[in-house]
Amino acid sequence: MSTSLSDVPAQIARQDVATGVLGPYLVGCVLNLLLGGVYLGLFSSARADLRQQPLKAKAVSWAVFALMVCCIVMAAEELVDTGVSQKRSAEELFAGPPQSNVLPLLGGVTGASCQAFLMWRAAALMPSRPLRLAFYAATSTLVLLALAGATLFSAMGFILTAGGESPIPYFTAEALWLWPSAFADILISAALAQTLHRRIAGFNPHTDGVLWRLIVVALQTAALTSVVSIAGAAVSTALEKSDDVHASAAGFAFWLPLPALHAISLFTTLSSRRHVQAQLSGSNSSGHHHNAHNNTLPLSVISGSGGVPGTKHTAGGARSSRAPHPLVVTVQREQAVSYDDGLELDVRKGPYGLDGSASSFGVGEKGRSSDEVV
Fold this sequence. Notes:
By secondary structure, the chain is mainly alpha-helical. Helices cover 62% and strands 10% of the residues. The chain has a 3-stranded antiparallel β-sheet with strand order 1-4-5. The chain has a two-stranded antiparallel sheet with strand order 2-3. It is elongated, with a radius of gyration of 32 Å. The C terminus is likely disordered.
């Protein structure tokens, strides 16, 4: 055998330790890649629709896209590095390479960007200024706490990689990131759902159905990230002081997919605008088609079978029958359904108008009818 293929002495961890430490981490990296690929595919297919979004939505979408590209590149690098690295002692497996500690920071910034935009969007729909300010204060606090927790978690990783002692337990920093992030997602989606629910006025089943659709989208958006964040935070809290290396790294499988989940949630929220507008357009088309066949309704005052026919007198006194004049009722109805999600604000009046009220939102329907009797 060639000397270049000879083995060298090395310290390696037991198989059960390597499985416990690397298993959740590799699962999280793979999920990050898969979900990141789903997001990139969705973003690419809807890139033309992005031009129709307001400037702020475009800026946030492209910023999240850039962050997701960084997350995907880092996750791919970690899979390759973990596969080829020969630093296999228990401590080296747990600490990982220094660049791996960038992933929590990227995840925190991605989540904070999505949450800040969704917070602004939900607040724009609130009619009460005090309620809107309270919502801003509570949600901003949670978002900033989550971002601080992600930064602290990343910093603790760099300290451990350098061989130092972290001032707080490593997984405590992880829990400080995931708990506020989960509560922020729940608060934003609950506020949006409640605001939309209050606008259901029972005008007609179609308009109410559109609002219910938006509520479902809001709750589904929260479910993607909140469930994963709560599960990861619960695992991190339960194991933050555990010395069992077989289970202490289980939280890695939960926070690594979070950036992609937040990005997909943002895309789902923005794309709901397009789906609702398509639904409204389809409703208008079908409504006009229906009205085209029912605008003129000829109604005879006298029944053709059992009524008394109309008569007239001739010069000779004879009676002759004549056809009855039908009563024609013409009904004209104009229907206009509009959808405004509060993203397009009047820059001349500011985000809340001259009087400080929230910008308009709603799925409205206006009708005009006139009857003509002939």
